[in-house]
Amino acid sequence: MRELSLENCRIDGRYDVICRLGRGSYAEVFLAEDRLASLASFHKKVVIKALNVFLQDDLDHDLERTLVENFENEAIALDRVRHPNVVCRLGHGTARDLEGALFHYIVLEYLEGGDLWQLVKTKPISLEKALFYFEQIAAGLSHAHRCGVIHRDIKPQNLLLSKDHQVVKIADFGVARIRQTDSIITRVGTNVFAPPEHTPLFASSGPGNQLSPASDIYSLAKTFYAILTSQPPRIFTCKQITALPEGLEDKPWSGRLLDILQKATEDEPEKRYQTIDEFW
């Protein structure tokens, strides 16, 4: 494993890297300052998302090509889906780090409030607050679907907050499907929010393997469960939500909410809500 050497580095003669914010399996995220932006600009500070194919030791040529395609896919999807509740892409390109390693990068707006999972995992929020966030996510996702984009990776960690925690924006469109003719992009890793149709077993089952807005609806339902309960829905991995945690099951709204989440997480996509607006 080798991390990119970017601290105190200037990218593209414009972006001064301040620090590393984190890293995933195949990408690193850095906070940077845009030297060309005015001091009053909302985008003076930006995020540099850098693809690093050397973070894992098991990389092969096919996987590297897929990762690069996913990275390019994210830039295309973000350009197509411009919305107040979707993270804004500000630029992209290729560069070399201080040791000469070539990498691809995307420049994104910087949201100081962290992600929704960081917010709720230690302190539960009310149903009203959860719905406040859900409405914004639904607005952004509904717009994406109208633009022909299926996100395919909705989860609390991909929902970023403004500094005051009043605005939430959808991030990470790296595995989005942006054309009806796109093949299903192989997922790197798995998560408890993914619908059954994201699994290889489902994808190989024939005509039912077409992704649709119902795939995002499934993931959004499990995301709402996590936001409201402060618990990841691990017991329902690739399964329908059939119960709420102890402490919520006796609320006056719990029965109706459970009915909605059950319908949204049906195994068969055609049995779920078919549009985000219907789900909302």
Helix content: 25-40%
The fraction of residues assigned to DSSP E strands is 15-25%
Shape: globular
Largest beta sheet: strand ordering: 1-2-3-4-6-5
Oligomeric state of the chains in view: single chain
N- to C-terminal distance? 43 Å
Descriptors:
280 residues; alpha+beta; 6-stranded antiparallel beta sheet; two-stranded antiparallel sheet; globular
3D structure, described in words:
The termini are far apart. The chain has a six-stranded antiparallel sheet, with helices on one face. Strands 7-8 form a two-stranded antiparallel ribbon. It is α+β, with helices and mostly antiparallel strands. The protein is built from seven helices and eight strands; from the N terminus they run E-E-E-E-H-E-E-H-H-E-E-H-H-H-H. Helix 3 (127-146) packs antiparallel against helix 5.
Helix and strand topology:
Elements: E1 10-11, E2 15-23, E3 27-34, E4 45-51, H1 61-80, E5 89-96, E6 102-109, H2 116-120, H3 127-146, E7 159-161, E8 168-170, H4 200-203, H5 213-229, H6 254-264, H7 276-279
Antiparallel strand pairs: 1-2, 2-3, 3-4, 4-6, 5-6, 7-8
Helix pairs in contact: 3-5
